[in-house]
Design a protein that fits this description.
heterodimer, A: about 350 residues, mainly alpha, ABC transporter involved in vitamin B12 uptake, BtuC, three-stranded antiparallel β-sheet, 16 helices, about 70% helix, B: about 350 residues, globular
């Protein structure tokens, strides 16, 4: 008898684990599916492309994770990303015209963009935390405002004339290896023979590395610091958080600022990768960011969610996007899949509440 | 003491009526500032462009009164526009008469438009998915389907009568010469065309009829009463015997059908079928219109009259900005600001909460 009880318990533990990690299993299934049907899907190049493709979703999703854990929502992230891209590109052009070398104008423009990126978040946070405007409406208002401002700043045309170095940074890799011949760090070998170029391995896109530094830092903040604890506490029960002495309005303002700074960061990366800035750069990404966080196991009622889940969610979306391109299916079809996955994720959350990991 | 009471009354009055006052102020300011603003032709223009937003906002009002939200309206509108224009184009190419093409295209569009609402309603009412998420999922699905069907391109080669009907007027007046209904006066001279006055665009009349019917539905019928009851307290509504899931299904279908009407009217207006782009933000303008009109997202409060005023504010603003030569994108900023202002004003005047239907 004990053996069967043990076996049953083990089996139910497995089922529970599978239920908890359904997103991860889904991701693996997705990769397997596209590997079988696609051509060269599992190549190093393509796997790295998936990571590049997941960046906007992941970066927007990071900020969105903080907001959703507090029980809020930030609908403005997509257009704030466009705002970031426009501001960053505009300042690169302005600083270049002012005579700064690219090595100075690019980082300076990025810093300016991050600083300006505080504004939408501060406004959102103040509206939500101090004026008690529902997060949904406050950030919906900002959704219109950010788009309008960036169209006006960019004069309704993509900003061009950025320093060429921006494109180099946005598209370079950290290591270049030609097997048994050359190992180069950050610099693309220029004078290699065509055969060598073909054999060359490019490893880790720089923007992916930069993004993951931010992701790791903020994952640490969420899991291991008092700031992170308070974020979960506010989402779990705002009254209790207030009574236990947390300055809830100030904390919430910070959370919305983090979200809009991540959106600006995503805008900077867009400007670097595509060497332009446009107001609609992130307009399709608001949906993606919410979906990534919700797939990752966050509840919209607040109090749960974690960065690991958001990473898996972003990878699911990026794999879908890359896989569809690989199969030659127009990638706009992914919106159909993403919309359905969103509802599915919420239904799983609804019907199997015991499966949803309580916050870390 | 009495001063205080009077002050509070004025405050409450302003809190309640600020949207109408704001609309009047906008009209006066633009009439003074912008040339050509104060003209029959321009006012009819404002209404002509407001029709689609009015329909979206009308459907949204029903949803918001129940305490829900429908984020999918803009993309359902694009989806239905694409479906009905594909039907019209293909039937025309198959050699059917223009009237048959238009009729079938419109009916197929409206029928297909029921589906997103059924799905939204089922998810919200039966599976208890938060309305915001269910309709955000539909926002993606409807947009993907529209892009899939149109392959990312506008749909041309519709019957030529489509655009004629969409841009016709109820009556035409050629001062001192002719007055006709529905059709332009015959034998127009080239010089007459400039003097021809169109009175009330046909689409505006259609939408006005739909709006009047919906006002009746929301204010005077049991369906409307139940809508407010569900928004006020869902538990109480259930206990008083209302079939809440079925009613909510009906509400989301209604919203989706209104969005479909908007999509079809859009096709008739421009004579081309087009999907909705992410940055066109139709849902923003619809929801902003309803909220400016005094609805609460908590449910139980909101009127169609208010929503109409809200939409007219946004469209007057757009028209006025255009005429004064200010870039059109300022309207996104203005809409966002007014939306937030509306919620803050609502927050600051608790007296408003008592006003129901």
């Amino acid at each position: 008898m004990p053996e069967t009880v043990l076996a049953a318990r083990r089996r139910s533990a497995t089922v529970l684990w599978m239920g908890r990690n359904w997103a991860l299993l889904f991701l693996l299934l997705e990769v397997a599916f596209f590997s079988i049907l696609g051509s060269r899907f599992q190549s190093l190049e393509n796997l790295q492309n998936i990571f590049v493709a997941c960046l906007p979703v992941l970066i927007l999703g990071m900020g969105q994770t903080f907001v959703i854990i507090t029980g809020g929502i930030d609908l403005s992230v997509g257009f704030v990303m466009g705002f970031g891209a426009v501001i960053c590109a505009k300042f690169m052009v302005i600083l270049q015209a002012a005579g700064l070398p690219p090595s100075a104008s690019i980082p300076l423009a990025a810093v300016i963009c991050l600083v300006v990126g505080v504004i939408p978040g501060f406004v959102n946070g103040t509206l939500v935390a101090r004026l008690k405007v529902p997060p949904f409406l406050a950030t919906f208002g900002m959704y219109g405002i950010a788009y309008g401002v960036s169209e006006i700043v960019s004069e309704n045309t993509p900003i061009s004339g950025l320093p060429a170095l921006a494109g180099v940074i946005g598209n370079e890799y950290i290591f270049y290896i030609i097997p048994r011949k050359l190992f180069s760090f950050l610099v693309r070998p220029g004078n290699a023979s065509p055969e060598d170029m073909r054999a060359m391995l490019s490893i880790i896109p720089t923007i992916v590395a930069i993004a993951f530094i931010f992701v790791i830092v903020f994952a640490f903040i969420l899991r291991r610091t008092r700031f992170g604890q308070h974020t979960y506490a506010i989402g779990g029960n705002m009254d209790a958080a207030t009574r236990s002495g947390i300055n809830v309005p100030r904390h919430l303002t910070w959370v919305y600022v983090i979200s809009s700074c991540f959106a600006s960061l995503s805008g900077i990366m867009y400007a670097l990768k595509y060497v332009t800035g446009r107001a609609d750069a992130g307009s399709a990404r608001m949906l993606d960011s919410v979906v990534a966080v919700v797939i990752g196991g966050a509840s919209l009622y607040g109090g749960t969610g974690n960065v690991k889940g958001t990473i898996v969610g972003a990878l699911i979306i990026a794999t879908l996007e890359t896989g569809m391109v690989n199969l030659g299916v127009p990638s706009h079809n992914r919106y159909i899949a993403i919309g359905m996955i969103l509802v599915l994720a919420v239904l799983i959350d609804q019907f199997f509440p015991e499966l949803v990991g309580k916050g870390e | 003491m009495q001063d205080q009471a009077v002050g509070r009354k004025i405050f409450a009055f302003l809190g309640e009526k600020w949207a109408s006052i704001f609309l009047v102020v906008l009209l006066v300011v633009f009439s003074l500032v912008a040339r050509n603003f104060f003209a029959v032709k321009n006012f009819s223009n404002i209404l002509y462009f407001a029709t689609t937003y009015l329909l979206l906002a009308a459907g949204e009002t029903f949803v918001i009164v129940t305490g829900g939200i429908d984020l999918s309206v803009g993309f359902v509108m694009g989806f239905v526009g694409v479906v009905s224009s594909i039907v019209m184009r293909d039937m025309l190419a198959a050699g059917n008469s223009q009237t048959v093409c238009m009729l079938v295209g419109t009916l197929v569009g409206l029928a297909v438009g029921v589906l997103p609402g059924l799905v939204n309603g089922y998810l919200v009412a039966r599976l208890r998915v938060p309305p915001f998420i269910a309709t955000l999922g539909m926002y993606g699905v409807a947009n993907g389907l529209a892009l899939n069907l149109s392959e990312g391109f506008p749909i041309y080669f519709l019957p030529t009568r489509v655009q004629e009907i969409g841009n016709s007027f109820i009556a035409y007046l050629l001062p001192g010469k002719a007055f006709t209904f529905f059709e332009r006066p015959p034998n127009l001279q080239p010089g007459d065309l400039r003097n021809l006055i169109g009175i009330i665009p046909g689409t505006v009349l259609v939408v006005a009829v739909i709006l009047l019917l919906s006002i009746f539905l929301l204010r005077r019928t049991k369906f409307g009463q139940h809508t407010y009851a569900i928004g006020g307290s869902k538990d109480a509504a259930i206990r008083s015997g209302i079939n809440v899931p079925r009613h909510l299904m009906g509400i989301y279908v209604l919203s989706s059908v209104f969005a479909s009407f908007a999509g079809i009217i859009y096709v008739f207006r421009i004579g081309v079928g087009n999907f909705t782009t992410f940055s066109s933000s139709f849902e923003l303008f619809a929801i902003a219109g309803v909220v400016i009109g005094g609805a609460s997202l908590m449910g139980g409060r909101g009127t169609l009259g208010g929503a109409i005023i809200g939409v007219l504010i946004l469209n007057t603003l757009e028209n006025g900005l255009n005429i004064t030569g200010i870039p059109a994108f300022y309207r996104y900023i203005a809409t966002g600001l007014i939306l937030i202002a509306a919620v803050v004003i609502d927050q600051l005047t608790p007296e408003r909460r008592s006003t129901g239907a």
